[in-house]
Write a structure and sequence with these properties.
By secondary structure, the protein is mainly alpha-helical. The chain is built from 14 helices and 8 strands. Helix content is 49%, strand content 12%.
């Protein structure tokens, strides 16, 4: 056991009570942080520091290997992450880092990670899809960089030196751009949709660019019919296959409102009146259990409606996420401001939107150059 003294003290201020944390840990000095609004927040910070110190105490005397550091980092940062993120990172640790990057920390180099990235597509199992290679590689590299950066922090000091600090690591760009549903195929899909409920679901994703789990988690109370917008304030989690909804939390922590087309508002209004639902009820409820429709059912709807429309779905065709890409590509192709699109999509930064839709940005650059002769009065004549 660590030799430590810990307490949380209430302190009165002009704005009301705040809470200070004091930790005195033998061999680690004192830790202090003050001004937490609630005792719960103060306790969360205290426990986070203790986890880091415990990890240090357990592992400092060992010659640490990379998977050990990543595993401790995952435990220490777990409370700050969504369940879907945790599941993806644990999988990456077990499948890739423990098997292919099991080296002493001091042997971690940019070349080691770049070689791992280059060979990854060949190691992915058949049926996994070669298109997943880039996202998997990026997740693994990001985890390695973040865990080593965390482990070298002064308040953690699990390792003395981060071996790849300030070292650039080259990740190849994905071979294919994200596949957006073509406009004419979207029209076919809508016409072929078996039920009005399915038609509304495809319209909502295609006309708002929201993620599948954000749409299935919607309640009628999230729709503002007067302002013609919807509120994204929760998400159906992938690890529960869409059956569990996390209230007050969305991907990248980007709560937002999304404007709605007038026609879509009327379709929603008609569905609300026809369904006789409670204002707090789900727009797409499960027919069997209390809660929203699950992802398996949504996927089944997608495959059936795509087949009825005569368009391909799955690995060789369109995915549901392709509706989000369709929305984004159409907006960017029309010249909409990148910052506006990024906010609507709920990306954490404009950089994320630029990286994902780089092919659209490149197309815009070429179109912009072609406009110059007309803008400058040259009409293309030299």
């Amino acid at each position: 056991m660590l030799d430590l003294v810990r307490n949380i003290q209430e302190r009165q201020t002009s704005a009301g009570p705040v809470y200070d944390v004091r930790l005195s840990i033998k061999g680690h000095g004192r830790q202090f942080k003050g001004g937490f609004a609630t005792r719960t927040e103060a306790a969360k910070w205290r426990d986070k520091i203790e986890r880091a110190v415990n990890a240090d105490a357990m592992l400092r005397q060992e010659r640490l290997r990379l998977p050990q550091v990543v595993e401790v980092w995952l435990r220490a940062t777990k409370p700050d992450k969504m369940g879907s993120t945790i599941a993806a990172q644990v999988s990456a640790l077990n499948v890739h880092i423990k098997t292919e990057l099991d080296v002493p920390v001091e042997h971690v180099t940019a070349k080691l990670l770049e070689d791992f990235v280059k060979g990854l597509p060949k190691r992915l199992p058949e049926g996994k899809g070669r298109g997943n290679g880039w996202s998997t590689a990026k997740r693994v590299v990001d985890m390695v960089k973040a865990s080593l950066r965390w482990a070298a922090r002064p308040d953690v000091k699990l390792i003395d030196v981060n071996p790849i600090r300030d070292v650039p690591i080259k990740l190849p760009r994905p071979d294919k751009s994200r596949r957006a549903v073509a406009g004419q195929d979207f029209v076919k899909l809508i016409k072929a949709a078996k039920t009005p409920q399915r038609r509304l679901l495809w319209h909502l994703i295609g006309y708002t660019g929201c993620r599948r789990g954000e749409i299935t988690a919607l309640r009628w109370s999230d729709i503002d019919f007067e302002e013609a917008e919807l509120r994204i304030d929760r998400i159906a989690t992938p690890e529960s296959k869409g059956r569990v909804v996390q209230e007050g939390r969305v991907k990248m922590n980007q709560r937002r409102t999304v404007p709605l087309d007038e026609g879509l508002v009327e379709a929603l209004r008609a569905a609300y009146r026809a369904g006789g639902s409670s204002i707090n009820g789900y727009i797409f409820p499960s027919p069997r259990v209390t809660g929203p429709i699950g992802f398996s059912a949504v996927q089944r709807w997608w495959e059936q409606d795509c087949e009825a429309a005569g368009i391909k779905s799955g690995a060789d065709g369109y995915t549901i996420h392709g509706l989000r890409h369709m929305f984004t590509t159409l907006l960017l192709d029309s010249g909409e401001d990148l910052k506006v699109v990024s906010r609507i999509l709920g990306h954490s930064s404009v950089r994320t939107t630029q990286d994902v839709y780089r092919h659209v940005s490149d197309s815009h650059k070429k179109k912009s150059i072609k406009k110059l002769p007309d803008l400058l009065g040259g009409n293309g004549k030299w």
